[in-house]
Protein 1
Amino acid sequence: MSLRLRRALLLLVAASGGAALSIAAAFGVRFGPESPDEAARRILERGLHEEKAHALLRSLLEAAPMRLTGSPGAEAALAHMEAVMRGLGFANVHREAVRVERWERGAETAVIEASAFGPEIDLAVCALGGSVGTAPEGLAAEVLEVRSFRELEAAADAARGKIVFFNRPMDRAVLDPFRAYGENAELRVRGAVEAAKRGAVAVLVRSLTMRRDRHPHTGLMRYEDGPPRIPAAAVATEDADGLSARLRETPGLTVRLKLGCRSAGSVWSSNLIGELRGSERPGEIILIGGHLDAWDLGSGAHDDGAGCVHAVEALRLIKAVGLVPKRTIRAVLFMDEEFGGTGGRSYAGAPEREGERHLAAFESDRGGFLPLAVGIGGGPEVLRRFEGLGALLRSSGVVLGLVAGGGGVDIAPLAEQGALLGGLIPDAARYFDHHHSALDVLEAVHPRELELGAIALALTAFLIARDGI
Ligand SMILES: [Zn+2]
């Protein structure tokens, strides 16, 4: 959480002491079936009473537990959610084509080889997304441990013929886990390129989590033209600490790494769209989106099954309580966020966007944890313009209010078309415990917390559909 966001939340907490302010007065409207207060009350009660978001997430994860971009599982997820949207009576339910790169994981092992100083030790590893595999017999090499690209550079020729082990823990002193993640992500994304430039034969990267356990966390890595394409794997934090300790005792120990992963070429996939059509200005759109693809070690419950469910449940709630939005509220389940963001770019550039105007787009891709706020970009002037929405969110008690923030990979291309970008901001303290690992499963998502996220987005979208921007 940024300092600015934290300060805003503190202010909101302070302000909510006087939450008796009349929302109707803030909007200058009379009470009626579609007054903001009444709409909020209906959506909140219905959502909390039924708690359907979690059941929807369960159904998605059962229908498609593995949703790696371009895989049969991703197609099964599209089919399932399309049937869900049609069953709920959404309008304009359709798919839009996206070209994606397919990558497959194979068997993967790493061991510290036995030496005069100790027996063979298994390391918990997983291939990073996009990595080439090793030869079937694997590769064995000495390990060079570094904490940064600068240290790698300073090691000069020491990396030649070695496995470079990037072992920099995420910084616990950073308050916002997303920032701590961002500070280390370059090691995962570009580690193989930087190590290959110095003659390394493979890389091991400490998993991007503050939790200490034996679950490796995958995620995207990239190659560049030029340096050889060397295999790249993540190593669990506990194993990274163990390997580091062994290296201090036994410099020159070797690790044998076997990765069976491979690229499987490009294939066609889709984004999935469904909406509640606006009664007065259907060409003006308020978008709520998540991404349907997911990493394959868990079942992508938080990342980003939760975001897809937030979008669909938000629309369902608005419809279920009998509200008719004046502008179109659209759920978009994007494909391929994890593997390059082609879904977001395809959506923004699709011929279907002709004649449409996106007023605002809200992305939910920070998990299904307790929502703290709804974020919106554009600076203080935009926040001021949405004071009424902020007051409604606050007085409803669903979240602490509207703050600066939000956005995301899938909706970013819509900024060029003038859309305000925002998003759901849940409590992030535990997000990276699960992120991209075998721990990202249904049991890690709390039904009421998930539902509150959908309710917050439903209120936000309904109010903007009613009042414009
Ligand atoms: Zn995600």
Protein 2
Amino acid sequence: MTLVDTIFVTGTAGSGKSALTGALKKWYTDRGEEAIAVNLDPGVVATPYEPDVDVRTRVDLQDVMEKYGLGPNGALVAAADLVAARLGEIQEEIDSYSAEYVIVDTPGQTELFAFRESGEYIVKGLASDSKTLLFLLDPQLATTPGNFLSIALLSASVGLRLSLPRITVLTKRDIAGEAAKRILSWSKDSAAFEEALARTRDSDQYSLYSELFRALRRLSFGADLYPVSSATLEGLVALVGEISRLGRGGEELSD
Ligand SMILES: Nc1nc2c(ncn2[C@@H]2O[C@H](COP(=O)(O)OP(=O)(O)OP(=O)(O)O)[C@@H](O)[C@H]2O)c(=O)[nH]1
Ligand SMILES: [Mg+2]
């Protein structure tokens, strides 16, 4: 029997979730694996990949706004609940593909998926042999040690909330240049992080930030980064390897 890996792609708005969903689907299918992309974002206008399963066929944001008299944000919250209510149908549609990899692109607003009951319900409810969470860190947001730490904490928080093995991915490697190098050096080397931190924070903030960073590192909790580019596919080998290691425990699989 085919085992199914489900990969949930989360991250801050514009961090590259949809681009990475498309890149991962391409990666797997180019290697002869059955992979499908699931769009869970009812608010997206266009995706950079062809969704195999698309919640927009079930929940129309414009209709939700009109029917319930809501603005765009209220409608997104209501739509997230309506998507969860139709999980059974979404599951049937996913199952009809018999795919080995199900890559789930989540809504632009991370908190909608990660911190509302509906997101947790979907993550727990979808049937799969293994589930992995990717949290995407946008190098354009992590320009200072303080911002980097804040997003690493958000990654940890989303992981805790959804209780899944998690990989923090540094996106847009092809255009991030020096910024990506800097972030990677902070993630690997506490001394480099603390040195940069000391230049930008006063002593009270320095103590708090460095303690939090050490705690994340000590617990292997989000300070390790996987740099990737969805444009050039750089870094996908390592990321896909880590997804299989976490999801399937590194076993050699046959069907
Ligand atoms: N050069 C480059 N651009 C990227 C990469 N990943 C994403 N982008 C660009 O970054 C922007 C946002 O990417 P999306 O994939 O839409 O990000 P998202 O997280 O799905 O965005 P929302 O769903 O709106 O929150 C788009 O203009 C992408 O083309 C990458 O690896 N390299
Ligand atoms: Mg998107």
